[in-house]
Amino acid sequence: MADNPIKELSDKTPLEVAHTPHMDRLTSRGTLGLVRTVKPGFPPGSDIANMSVLGLDPNIYYTGRAPIEAVSMGVDLEEGDLAFRINLVTLAQKETGLIMEDYCAGHISSQEARELIDALKDSLKQNPEIRLYHGIEYRHLMVIKGYNSSTKGKLKTTPPHDITGEYVEEHLPTDALLKRLIQDSSAVLKDHRVNIDRRKQGKREATAIWPWGEGKACTIPTLQEEYGIKGAMISAVDLLKGLGMLRGMEIIDVPGATGWIDTNYTGKAHAALDALTRADLVYVHVEAPDEASHGGLIKEKIDAIEAFDRMVVGTIITGLESQHLPFKVLLMPDHPTPIATRTHSSDPVPFAIYDSRNTRNNNCRFSEKDAKKAGLFIEEGHTILKRFLEF
Fold it and tell me: How many CB atoms lie within 10 A of CB 178?
């Protein structure tokens, strides 16, 4: 949700423009501040940021994004295995080369993506050390067993959402095998039935895979082991589900949860209320504002923020208050995704903590500007969970 002031919004952020009465009410009666969720020296990814929100120091526990998603998919990594997140992307020919036209292939559906991944699996039958696994929409997994990089020095890959509209040549993986896999995938996908149908419908095609987020297996303490509490995770994306599983949380799949602006917001809220009958802590994650930001879609981002406020926050708070039991809420983005850059930022994010037993009156809204004015700043983002639990 967090962003920078946008000229088209009279130099306000989407959070400042959006109608968010429920988040604002919690904020005005709680504690507001800024927290740095992306530790200096780490890339501003959702993996690093959400690890921080879940109370994990990336310096200790981070091994890469893909191993976390592998956990969600039920893929066990063995010693020597290297996991990669692979996106189905749209690469387009321009004057002097290929550009990253779309990091998500027009938000291709999970069913269409499954057919394409199956076709790629068939093409790799002669390479049993390379395995592909289905994910959600454009997000999938590749594991290379006994991986040995041809790269002299450290392997480097680039998140595709960081290079939208840019020529891909200088952003290709530094490893020859990965470059060849991208090239070979293009040949397999070019005239696949799914892409032919999408072409006829004027939709963006999935023209290649793009590997990134590599890493090896990681071990993380559970919430029960660290804090003695039970947790539940509600998200449409494998990264958050994987983090939840590593934290020992119950993973709740909500029908219609897509990770896009058409997600089942209300379904997530009702699932959260139900989960709180058996769990101490429920983490509700909504991807839509981030996806709209990656697309440079101002209206859609504002719509997603308002839908989150109305259907998720509003529904959950109304449900909790009707039970007449004490509760606490931590409200925050994982990281900023500015519309202007269409990618993640390391800047601090606003957070609000509301405790129904100890309400305040600070006359603030949930926004970047008000959070900065509040004067409270937490440098070590991974301490936010402990602060919340002890608040």
Answer: 26
For residue 75, the one-letter residue type is: V
Per-domain residue ranges for the chain? 7-62+220-390, 82-215
Query: Whole-angstrom Cα distance, residue 225 to residue 377?
Result: 28
Please give the span between the terminal C-alpha atoms of the chain, in angstroms, as a whole number: 24
Residues 285, 333 contacting (CB under 8 angstroms):
no
Determine the pLDDT at residue 5.
Answer: 98
How many beta carbons lie within 10 A of that of residue 73, not counting itself? 17
> What strands, in cross-sheet order, belong to the sheet with 31-35?
328-331, 349-355, 31-35, 377-378
Quickly count: other Cβ atoms within 10 Å of residue 119's Cβ. 15
pLDDT digits (tens, 9 = 90+) for 264-283: 999 999 999 999 999 999 99
Per-residue pLDDT tens digits for 26-56: 999 999 999 999 999 999 999 999 999 999 9
- CB of 288 closer than 8 Å to CB of 306: no
CA 93 to centroid of chain Cα atoms:
28
User: What is the average pLDDT score of the chain?
Assistant: 96
Residue 258 has pLDDT above 60, yes or no: yes
Residue type, 113: A
Helices 193-200 and 110-123 pack at an angle, to 10 degrees, of 140
What is the rounded distance in angstroms from the CA atom of residue 344 to the CA atom of residue 44? Answer: 6
For residue 130, what are the contacts with CB-CB under 8 A and spacing of at least 6? 124, 142, 143, 144, 145, 181
Cα–Cα dist 81/276, whole Å: 37
Instruction: Tell me the three state secondary structure of residue 165.
Output: coil
- The three-class DSSP label of residue 9 is helix
DSSP helix, strand, coil percent of the chain (3-state; round to 5) = 40, 20, 45
Distance CA 87, CA 159 (A): 9
Structure tokens at 293: 């930001």
DSSP H or E segment with residue 143? strand 139-144
| The domain over range 7-62+220-390 is classified in CATH as 3.30.43.10 | no
- Spatial distance between the Cα atoms of 384 and 315, rounded to a whole number of angstroms: 24
Nearest to 3 by CA among 13, 12, 11: 13
Residue 153's pLDDT is 63
Residue 221 has a pLDDT of 97
Residue 365 has pLDDT above 60, yes or no: yes
Taking the C-alpha atoms of residue 260 and residue 109, their distance in angstroms, rounded to an integer, is: 11
